[in-house]
Sequence to fold (124 residues):
Amino acid sequence: VQLQASGGGLVQAGDSLRLSCVASGRTISSYLMAWFRQAPGKEREFVAAVPWTATSPFYTDSVKGRFAISRDNAKNTVYLRMNSLKPEDTAVYFCATDTKRNRPLYSVSAYYYWGVGTLVTVSS
Fold:
């Protein structure tokens, strides 16, 4: 599976962005999809995930109420809508899929496939 994230950019605090991640090489319709991010000098962290059913997405606390993850299985694509962006949201955002058994879904080690990230920079 190849994953390609896009949609990042430079925005001001309070603005919105929508990230996209397109999968190729395999249909993702039966896989959980996730977004992670990595800020400069920090470890990669979980942001959000959506099961293959597209029901019950879950988020890290710092983005709840501001970010929304969704998927379009027909397009083999997952999205991350980011509203009310803050400078602390500045990071490279990565999508990931195909989870390993017995690994917590918020863990980097839980995923087999990672996309090339897209940079989001939020200025104050």
Summary: The CA atoms of residues 22 and 52 lie 15 Å apart. The mean pLDDT is 94. The chain is about 0% helix and 50% strand.
